[in-house]
Amino acid sequence: MKNAVIVDAVRTPLAKGKPGGAYSDIHPVDLHAVALKALVERTGIDPAVIDDVISGAVGQVGEQSGNTARWGLLAAGYPESVPGVTVDRQCGSSQQALHFAAQGVMAGAYDVAVASGIESMSRIPIGSQFLGKDFAGPTVQGRYAPGLIPQGVSAELIAQKWGFSREQLDEFAAESHQRAARAWKDGRFDNETAFVNDLRTDETIRPDTSAEGLGALRLAFKDDHWSERFPEIDWKVTAANSSPVNDGSAAVLVTSEDAAASLGLRPRARVRAFAVAGDDPIYMLTGIIPATRKVLAKAGLSITDIDAFEVNEAFASVVLAWQAETGADLAKVNINGGAIAIGHPLGASGARLATTLVNVLEQTGGRYGLQVMCEAGGIANATIIERS
Known about the structure:
Layout: E1 4-11, E2 15-16, H1 28-43, E3 52-56, H2 68-75, E4 84-87, H3 93-107, E5 112-120, H4 138-143, H5 151-162, H6 166-185, H7 211-214, H8 224-229, E6 246-256, H9 257-262, E7 269-278, H10 288-299, E8 308-311, H11 316-326, H12 339-342, H13 349-364, E9 368-375, E10 379-387
Parallel strand pairs: 3-4, 3-5, 8-9
Antiparallel strand pairs: 1-6, 1-7, 2-6, 5-6, 7-10, 9-10
């Protein structure tokens, strides 16, 4: 079996995913093309050798419908001979794209593949694809009677189960902003970024954020309906200790070692192991715990072997519960900040995490990096890479 290596990875700065955000006037296909084009320009690769472009997108409706991967690669100037496919594993869509690209290389089906992601939440608002319909159906709703719940309420259940206080959630969120602001100031994001227009940082980072200031914000998910259903919850999740909505794109070039050598490219990392896992769809966001255990077992590693972690900060309670169960050192988790500050453009986030993780390993001299992403429905992707 061949090794799959990461030759390069790049992302755009992330913008606010609402009208007036820095990218709200850019069509999602053109925003996707920024990362895809930058990947070719940075590596000097002839895009004609790319066997497939596998892209993640969650809101596959309107301007992100009709296999947006194909239109993104054409907008980036790739030859018409290059195919593309769009996948949906909810928030883990582009991390799944990376898994598919690596699997294709390892199986010998691909020599060169691109894993990418796009989400324009300013133009395709979250939930647009549901059209107000019951996406799970009556059988599933009945299995989890009295029905499924929003992710924010799941985050509240997690905080309650693991006993996290409002202060702990806000402290974690404030630290994410401070780390991300320092990373930009110190130039640690420069090597991973393809700039768009005049945006020169992630638009949702607030450098002056403090836990005390966040403590004054109102609760985001408490209402009479959910309070009646879950009277045990001591509500504490706010918009500030949750990830924002964002626009952005990212792309990762994956090849075999032989293909990299023949093209004169230097691998930056090897995809060591990957796994997916499922968990309770009511708690929903806890899938990252079994996924982490599963991928470590596949790689023959322990949590202490990992030098850097990128754990998607959908909510502060999710990362804190994962840390409590895995024993990971929080000093090694999201060292350049996480999604609470940087942003979470759903379909692009997996490729963004991979891009950041490659750079963090190079910046710190670490060997192994692990990224893990919680996803709607109680599933999760986990990936371990090894720096070259």
